[in-house]
Design a protein that fits this description.
Transcription Regulator spoIIAA; 5-stranded mixed sheet; 5 helices
Length: about 110
């Protein structure tokens, strides 16, 4: 699992995940993921377009991070998951907690509003 980080306009953070979001993948990226989503009022986009597999440990990372971010006045959204990953997000109820967008412009606009 690989993690790439960028800041897009207006201090919105973009975290791109690449690979398998299973227990090994989560262990590999969790410290950096937490660092990049820390602070007060963080606005975070998690790009899932290159995530090939989403296991329960990945679901846990996403939901706990979203709740932690919200408790600090921020917001997290997901960007462009593949069909199989989106199905897992829907079945597990994650998509009801963390909104999903399919282009960066929409995701950025949602975090600005």
């Amino acid at each position: 699992m690989e993690l790439q980080y960028n800041e897009v306009e207006d201090n919105i953070r973009l975290i791109k995940l690449i690979g398998r979001l299973d227990i090994g993948g989560v262990d590999a990226i969790e410290p950096k993921f937490s660092d990049y989503s820390s602070g007060e009022n963080p606005r975070v986009i998690v790009d899932l377009s290159d995530v090939e597999f989403l296991a329960s440990s990945g679901i846990r990372l996403l939901t706990l991070s979203a709740k932690s971010i919200a408790s600090r006045g921020g917001r997290m959204v997901l960007l462009n998951p593949k069909t199989d990953v989106k199905d897992v997000l829907d079945i597990t109820g994650v998509s009801a907690i963390v909104p999903i967008y399919y282009d960066l412009k929409s995701a950025t606009a949602a975090l600005k509003g």
